[in-house]
Specification:
mainly beta, 17-stranded antiparallel beta sheet
């Protein structure tokens, strides 16, 4: 090995490769160590490193194995000029701002992977291919070729969902992925159900002020009719979301909302300004059908009343989900979810009903009607509360290529107090489900029963939607 190659391999140890001397020898451990060495060389300027031989000696007398791995590091390489092909509607500046490497830097396959992921996440391209152009190599410098195929900029879509307590709901949207020519996304969406009529207009701008920032602006209007409250509201807001690297992200924004709400306290008008802040750690491998990893999301939104409104409060919420594969093919998944929330700074009746916590339904405690878990008023209507806790455990089995079975247990409650009263009984629901796996995600069909059935609870609830429950 040359001096540069030895420097590139510096820091690679048994421990860093997951190999412990004295541990039972396994073939997969040796193959994994070999793959990791090649990958690390690829991150330190040797993208063409490859294994050229492997010598395994088994000593039966000492019951030990000695493995010698022979590698060809290839030529040292630095990033050269950028060549972009395949653009027609998208500006080349959009591609250049997503490049994670700098010309003249040692080649790093991790930066190439991050660039490919960044370009794919823009949803502007149907294919992204990045490779070093060896034929144009000049010494250590190799030009980088980025070949792209643009997706149609406009699309329409929609969805349907159903639950026993919420009824049938449909939504439709029109989307433009490149509205001003630099990857801006305009989305116009409407939804209609037995309880909600709504419309949204959203504009998203990637790389806002910085490569890792995204700006989202939006306006919306809603007319909602629930057992807990009726609301007519409209508002506007803006949020900046930042990717901090790997699974970490955060956001901060401002919202302005006008609402007219009818609930147990009567008819009330609210004008609220909010300042939502979130932090997220996400290692899930798929948004609609995760089979590994988890997602922890912490959110805090202080609200202040304006123009006659007296409500000043802060909504705090933590959501955590985990997914664990019980087999190497990821056909059997154990998943869990926990949600905890608290509203500080105002009594429950001073908090607008649409900002209180509610539980029950397909997103929290299945087996109970939508928003039916928690405090009730004198007419037995749910009122929502100032705190909540809810959790779920779910076992998923993919029994055929496109069919899966699920069994689950949910539990939770909503409380009048600012903090969950763990001395108060939780309500539990259990059920089974079927998943039909499609190219865009699993179609969910769940049926659940309340294990702590109250007088006005239905014997069962049905939920149909796209995607796993969590």
């Amino acid at each position: 090995a040359t001096e540069d190659q030895e420097r590139a391999a510096d820091g690679i140890s048994y421990e860093s490769l997951g190999v412990a001397l004295g541990e039972r020898a396994r073939a997969d451990m040796i193959v994994s160590a070999e793959r990791q060495v090649v990958n690390r060389l690829g991150r330190k300027g040797y993208p063409f490193a490859q294994s050229v031989g492997r010598d395994i000696v088994v000593d039966h007398e000492t019951r030990s194995v000695a493995a010698t791995l022979e590698l060809d590091a290839g030529q040292p390489t630095v990033f050269g000029a950028l060549e972009i092909d395949g653009l027609s509607e998208v500006d080349a500046a959009v591609v250049r701002r997503e490049i994670r490497w700098k010309e003249g830097e040692p080649y790093d396959i991790q930066k190439v992977t991050e660039t490919r992921q960044a370009l794919s996440s823009l949803d502007l391209f149907s294919s992204v291919t990045i490779r070093p152009d060896e034929q144009q190599r000049q010494g250590e410098t190799v030009p980088m070729s980025v070949a792209l195929a643009e997706s149609p900029p406009r699309s329409i879509g929609g969805g349907v969902k159903y639950s026993t307590s919420e009824g049938l709901g449909v939504n439709a949207f029109w989307r433009h992925r490149n509205f001003f020519g630099e990857g801006e996304e305009l989305r116009i969406e409407g939804q209609v159900s037995e309880q909600v009529y709504g419309a949204d207009i959203k504009l998203g701008k990637p790389a806002f002020l910085d490569q890792d920032n995204r700006l989202d602006l939006g306006v919306y209007a809603r007319d909602e009719t629930f057992d807990a409250y009726d609301a007519q509201r409209f508002g506007a807001g803006g949020t900046i979301t930042r990717q901090f690297g790997g699974p970490y992200s955060g956001s901060a924004g401002v919202t302005l909302e006008q609402s007219r709400i009818t609930d147990e306290t009567g008819i009330n008008n609210f004008t609220l300004i909010g300042f939502p802040v979130t932090a997220q750690y996400d290692t899930t491998n798929d948004f609609l059908n995760p089979t590994s990893g988890g997602r922890l999301r912490l959110a805090a939104t202080p609200y202040a009343g304006l123009i006659g409104s007296t409500a000043n409060f802060a909504v705090l919420r933590a959501d955590d989900t985990v997914h664990y594969a019980l087999d190497s093919d990821e056909k059997y998944i154990l998943a869990g979810r926990l949600t905890v929330g608290s509203i500080l700074g105002a009594t429950r009746t001073d908090i607008p009903a649409d900002k209180r916590f509610h539980a029950g339904g397909g997103d929290t405690v299945r087996g109970y009607g939508f928003q039916s878990v928690g405090p009730r008023d004198s007419e037995n209507n749910p009122t929502g509360g100032s705190s909540m806790i809810a959790g779920s455990v779910e076992f998923r089995a993919r029994v055929w290529e496109d069919i899966g079975l699920v069994t689950f247990l949910d539990g939770g409650n909503v409380y009048r107090s600012e903090l969950p009263d763990l001395g108060e009984k939780l309500l539990f629901g259990a059920g089974v489900g079927v998943r039909y796996y499609t190219p865009i995600g699993p179609l969910r069909f769940d049926i659940a029963v309340p294990l702590d059935k109250r007088e006005d609870d239905s014997s069962f609830q049905i939920y149909i939607s796209l995607g796993q429950a969590f």
